[in-house]
C-alpha cells in the first residue's frame, strides 16, 4: 500500500470511529431448548466447509452463536483497525452483540490488559453461554492471544480467577460449572475451538509485557483446537520475510495452519476489512472462497482489495467453527440448571 493509500485509509478509519455502529440487533440465542425445530434441522445440515451467505444470515445468526474476542495492536490508533474488522464481520452477517463486550460495549481488547483477566473472561463466557468463544489477534494482540492460550494450557498460575465482564472484576472463584456436565471445572484446562493471529511477533516482543513470549510465540499449545497463523510476505514490524521464520507449529494436538498473505497487505492495515463488505460482488467472492483451492479472479470493483485474501481466509475459519460450535451445542445435552 502506498503512503497516500495508507493515509487515506487511516483517515477513513478515524472518520468511521466518530460514528458508532447502528444499535445492535437482539443477541443470538444461546439456549437451544426453544429453538424452532425446522431451524435446528437446517443448522445441523450445514456443511462447515461450505457456508453460504444465506445460511449465515437466515440460519446461523438465528441460532447459538459463540462470542468472538478480538485483540488489537498496541499503538494508538491501531485499535480502529480491529473496529473495522468487527464492522466487516457484522456486515458479513455475524451478530454484533456477540462481538461487543457485554459490560462497556467495546469491540476489541488491548494487548496491555491482563492476560489472566482475558483467560478468566473466556471461562465466564463459556459458563454463561454454553458456547466456547473464538479469538482473533492483530499484531501485538496476536502475541497476547497466544499468551492466553498458554495460561489455559496450565503454563502459568495453577489457578485463574473467573472474570466477570459486567462488574469488571474477578469473582472469588477459580472454577466454573460446565454447562454440559453440570460439574465444576477449573479455568485452567479449558480449550477454545478456533483462534487466528495476523502480523504478530518481531519488535513487539521487545516490550516488557511480552518478554515471556520470546521463543514461545510460534509454539501453539493444546488449549486451542484449530489455529491459523497469518504472516505477510514482507513485514518489517513483525520481522518477517520469506524464509526468516519457521512458522507456527503445534506443541501437541492443536491443528496449526500457516498462511502467507500477498505483498499487497500492510502490517498496520491488514485487518481493516470493513470496505470489503460494502460491495455485494466482493461479499459473494469472499463467501465462495475455499482455502487450498485456487480462487477465481476478484470481481471488478472500486473497493480496495489489498486485504481480500486475509478477509476470505479468516471469514472461512470463523464461519466453519461457528457451525461446529453451534452443531455441538445442538447435539450435546446440557446439564439441568442448578
Strand segment count: 11
Number of helices: 8
At the first level of CATH, the class is Alpha Beta
On the 0 to 100 scale, the average pLDDT is 88
Q: Which CATH architecture is right? A: 3-Layer(aba) Sandwich
Q: What is the straight-line distance between the termini?
A: 55 Å
Strand content: 5-15%
Major sheet description: 5 strands, parallel
> What is the 3D shape?
globular
* Computed CA radius of gyration, to the nearest angstrom: 19 Å
Q: What share of residues is helical? A: 25-40%
Widest beta sheet: strand line-up: 1-2-7-9-11
Unreliable stretches covering 5 or more consecutive residues: 1-12, 14-26
Indicate the CATH topology: Rossmann fold
Structural class: alpha/beta
H-E order:
HHHEHHEHEEEEEEEEEHH
Number of domains: 1
Can you describe what's shown?
The protein has a single domain (54-331), classed as Rossmann fold (3-Layer(aba) Sandwich). The chain is built from 8 helices and 11 strands. It has helices at 3-17, 37-44, 53-58, 79-91, 115-129, 140-152, 280-288, 308-331, and strands at residues 68-71, 134-138, 163-164, 169-170, 175-177, 184-186, 192-198, 219-220, 224-232, 249-250, 255-261. Strands 1-2-7-9-11 form a 5-stranded parallel sheet, sandwiched between helices. A two-stranded antiparallel sheet has the order 3-4. β5 (175-177) and β6 (184-186) form a beta hairpin. Residues 1-12 and 14-26 have low confidence and may be disordered.
Which SSEs are present, and which pair or pack?
Blueprint lengths: L2 H15 L19 H8 L8 H6 L9 E4 L7 H13 L23 H15 L4 E5 L1 H13 L10 E2 L4 E2 L4 E3 L6 E3 L5 E7 L20 E2 L3 E9 L16 E2 L4 E7 L18 H9 L19 H24 L7
Parallel strand pairs: 1-2, 2-7, 7-9, 8-10, 9-11
Antiparallel strand pairs: 3-4, 5-6
Helix pairs in contact: 1-4, 5-6
Amino acid at each position: 500500500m502506498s503512503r497516500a493509500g495508507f493515509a487515506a485509509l487511516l483517515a477513513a478509519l478515524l472518520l468511521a470511529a466518530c460514528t458508532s455502529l447502528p444499535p445492535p440487533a437482539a443477541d443470538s440465542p444461546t439456549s437451544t431448548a426453544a429453538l424452532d425445530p425446522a431451524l435446528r434441522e437446517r443448522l445441523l445440515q450445514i456443511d462447515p466447509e461450505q457456508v453460504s451467505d444465506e445460511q449465515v444470515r437466515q440460519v446461523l445468526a438465528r441460532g447459538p452463536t459463540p462470542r468472538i474476542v478480538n485483540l488489537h495492536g498496541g499503538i494508538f490508533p491501531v485499535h480502529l483497525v480491529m473496529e473495522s474488522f468487527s464492522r466487516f464481520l457484522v456486515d458479513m452477517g455475524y451478530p454484533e452483540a456477540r462481538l461487543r463486550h457485554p459490560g462497556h460495549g467495546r469491540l476489541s481488547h488491548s494487548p496491555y490488559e491482563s492476560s489472566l483477566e482475558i483467560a478468566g473472561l473466556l471461562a465466564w463466557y463459556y459458563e454463561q453461554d454454553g458456547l466456547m468463544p473464538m479469538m482473533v489477534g492483530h499484531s501485538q494482540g496476536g502475541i497476547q492471544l497466544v499468551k492466553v492460550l498458554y495460561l489455559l494450557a496450565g503454563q502459568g498460575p495453577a489457578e485463574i480467577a473467573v472474570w466477570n465482564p459486567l462488574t469488571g472484576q474477578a469473582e472469588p472463584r477459580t472454577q466454573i460449572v460446565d454447562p454440559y456436565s453440570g460439574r465444576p471445572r477449573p479455568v485452567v484446562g479449558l480449550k477454545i475451538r478456533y483462534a487466528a493471529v495476523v502480523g504478530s511477533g518481531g519488535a513487539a516482543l521487545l516490550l516488557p509485557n511480552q518478554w515471556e513470549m520470546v521463543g514461545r510465540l510460534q509454539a501453539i499449545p493444546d488449549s486451542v483446537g484449530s489455529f491459523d497463523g497469518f504472516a505477510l510476505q514482507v513485514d518489517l514490524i513483525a520481522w518477517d520475510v520469506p524464509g526468516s521464520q519457521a512458522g507456527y507449529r503445534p506443541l501437541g494436538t492443536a491443528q496449526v495452519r500457516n498462511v502467507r498473505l500477498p505483498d499487497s497487505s500492510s502490517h498496520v492495515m491488514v485487518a481493516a476489512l470493513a470496505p470489503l463488505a460494502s460491495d455485494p460482488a466482493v461479499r459473494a467472492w469472499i463467501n465462495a472462497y475455499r482455502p487450498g483451492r485456487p480462487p477465481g479472479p476478484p470481481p471488478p470493483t472500486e473497493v480496495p482489495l489489498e486485504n481480500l485474501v486475509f478477509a476470505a481466509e479468516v471469514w472461512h475459519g470463523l464461519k466453519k467453527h461457528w457451525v461446529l460450535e453451534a452443531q455441538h451445542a445442538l447435539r450435546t445435552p446440557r446439564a439441568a440448571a442448578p
